[in-house]
Amino acid sequence: MIRRFMQELLKKICYIIVKIVYRVKVEGIENIPDNEGVIICGNHIHALDAPILIIMSKRQICFMAKEEIFKNILFRWLGKLYGIIPVNRDKKDTEAIKKALLVLKENKVLGIYPEGTRNGLEKGVKPKNGAVNIAIRTKTKIVPFSVKGDFKPFKKIKYTFGEPMDFSGYKVNAHDKEVVEILTNELMAKIVELRDKDEKMNINITK
Q1: What's domain 2-206's superfamily in CATH?
Q2: What percent of the residues of the chain are helix, what percent strand, and what percent coil, each to the nearest 5?
Q3: pLDDT (tens digit, 9 = 90+) per residue, 185-199?
Q4: Measured distance CA(41)–CA(186) in Å, rounded
Q5: What's the CA gap between 195 and 166, in Å, rounded?
Q6: Under 8 Å between Cβ of 46 and 122
Q7: What's residue 203's pLDDT?
Q8: Which residues of the chain, if any, have pLDDT below 50?
Q9: How far apart are CA 47 and CA 36, in angstroms?
Q10: What local confidence, expressed as pLDDT, does residue 199 receive?
Q11: Nearest one of 205, 16, 39 to 114, comparing CA atoms
Q12: Which of 167, 103, 179 is nearest to 137 (CA)?
């Protein structure tokens, strides 16, 4: 009860601050189901893109994040308060996977950045297959999203959510690394498409 109260109180306070300072706009949030477990996957461009999304969402989002952030006492407290799952990126973290599966079993929202690091696409980092693996294993849909903005005060930040992607039909391919990589690339392509949508619209308008 106390934890829930603290979660809501902090979210309300931070929501006001975020709306004023960052002029956040969210599109397509209705693509996230209201009462079922779902995975959301997006591009990762700033340390604040996950916290701000947690603040803006009506549903609780439990993001998977590198365990290094838990070395900071404040971040560790906030992480536990909001169900952030620490991940050891140097090995296959089975404990983190178990916690992620529990989030979905409890019909919550699991947040994963397939890039595994900030601006991984620009750095040419190969996307991680974890999100698709979990989606196939649990027959859970993935809702792709993009985030745009430089996270400077009083400049707009935009989150755009796409339609859910259903990989449940690939259950028999769960252990086929090549198939999983292809599906992961499809997911990343959708994220990039959402990210670049506005630019394409502007080009079409000016033609």
Answers
A1: Glycerol-3-phosphate (1)-acyltransferase (3.40.1130.10)
A2: 50, 15, 30
A3: 999 999 999 999 876
A4: 12
A5: 20
A6: no
A7: 42
A8: 201, 203-207
A9: 27
A10: 63
A11: 39
A12: 167
